[in-house]
Amino acid sequence: MTARDCGQHEEEMNKLYRWLLIGAAAFIGIILLIIFLIWLILRPSKPSFVLQDITVYTFNISSPNLITSNLQVTLSTKNPNDRIGVYYATLDVYVSYRNQQITLPTELPPTYQGHKDIVVWSPFLYGASVPVAPYLGVALNEDQMTGMVLVNIKVNGRIKWKVGTWISGHYHLYVNCPAYISFGNRNTGIAVGPAVKLQLVQSCSVDV
What is the structure's pLDDT at 69? Predict the structure, then answer.
């Protein structure tokens, strides 16, 4: 084989490699396009959350500016999609008062939610002698004196969408449920031993 033949053979091999690369890239592009079109057609809607109730076992402030709370909340979520499932990979629930977290986060178990399914959780939320800013201690005392305290039940987590056998990457989920806790009048709730259960059925804001 002459040097010219070797050059022609090498050039043909290079062309073959280029066509193989182009073919592989085109195949991957088509697959990604199909997935993208399916995504556009289905357009997943974010799940809806409702804070059903809160059971208050302890909620008070002690000097100097320490909040102690022991609550149980009931959260329900509905998947509004007809063809898309939701994987709740990680979910942490906690209570905040005027944008300051006052309980430890409670982790919910990983959960799969099918089409149009409803899932309910009832986690306990604890915070023992949590230090807060002095102005928050004053504000909480004033709120308790008026008989009503606004807290926020928050959920932070990561979810995945499931379409057929395809599962998406992780998406951040943030849920905020405002809730008014009544003090002084037990008639506003249901007595559960020393605790009071407040029926709320409060819709939550959801960001994905």
Answer: 93
